[in-house]
Amino acid sequence: MNRLATRRMPASTDWFADFLKYITGTSVVAAIAGWVLKHYIETQSKADLKRFELDLKHSHEESLASLKQKLETQAKSDERIKREIVLWANPILDAAISLEKRLHNILKDEGYKALDPGYTPAEWSITSAYMVPSTLYLFGRYFCWIQLLRLELSFELFRSSKEKDEFFKSIDAVAGALGNYPPSYDAQNKPVYYDGDGSDTQVFRLQQQGIGELLTVRRKDGRACQSYAHFCSKFADATYQNLLGPVYRLIECVTPSQKRWRRLMAVDDALGRLIAHCNALLSPDRS
Asked: For residues 4 and 101, which has the higher predicted lDDT (pLDDT)?
């Protein structure tokens, strides 16, 4: 029995040793593999995190740079627009409002009486010698600034093409009220003429432009409109008389019963709409 047991022990011991060796080897490999995998994941996570941080920082810097550039561009654009507003607001609005006031004086306050050379005032000291040239000057100054505006106004002043189109439509409406013949058309596209006595008189667009060019003067800081005093000194010149003739024929001795009166009313109405557009577009508080 003892001898048989002694012989089997080595076999049993060898098997157990092999088993321990297998178990131990597998555990070590698994542990090593687990550690390596864990370390790899941690390393990759840290690398990914670092890369993400760098990407985020780069993206943030690019966004800040882009925002800064946009703000600087917008600031320069706003400054240019402010300069345009300062350049145009006073002369354009003053010319339009002054002409509108004169038309109101003619159409609503009996100022038309002083457009007759034979008018003899009683207590009102206005005379035809003042009323006619000053009215022609107010028309001419308006034509002058509109012509300059067409040539020099920056389109950057407009928020959109629609705003620009509406503004110039309001300018064209005044020009059309003065120069269109027939004055308008009905829904069936049939011409509509003014009712009243006498003949209708138009001031065509090219005539308006010519008067505007006549009153344009050059200064060191750019083009402007000549003063009333300068206009009066030149009023008797043949060139002035010829170019201003269409406006003179429109206003001369006009009375409420005439077709020319209706045309002046249409000009006054269109001018009011233009002034509203100017106030909206050229206001210093425009946002």
From this structure: 101
Cα–Cα dist 116/113, whole Å: 6
Distance CA 247, CA 261 (A): 13
- 205 half-sphere exposure, CB direction, 13 A CA radius: 9
Q: What is the mean pLDDT of the chain?
A: 81
- Residue reference for tokens 């083009």: 223
Nearest to 144 by CA among 214, 194, 82: 214
Tell me the C-alpha distance between 211 and 219, whole Å: 19
Residue 178: count of CB within 10 angstroms of its CB: 25
182: preceding bond cis by omega (within 30 degrees):
yes
Give the torsion through C-alpha atoms of 84, 85, 86, 87, to 10 deg: 50
Q: Provide the total of helices (H) and of strands (E) in the chain, helices listed first.
A: 7, 4
The domain ranges of the chain are: 79-281
Amino acid at 278: C
| Terminal-to-terminal C-alpha distance of the chain | 113
Q: Which two tokens stand for residue 79?
A: 């400054």
Non-local CB neighbours of 184 within 8 Å, separated by 6+ positions: 191, 192
Digit-coded pLDDT (tens) for 218-264: 877 778 899 999 999 999 999 999 999 999 999 999 999 999 999 99
- The residue to which tokens 């206001």 are assigned: 283
Cβ atoms of 183 and 192 within 8 Å: the answer is yes
Q: What class has domain 79-281?
A: mainly alpha
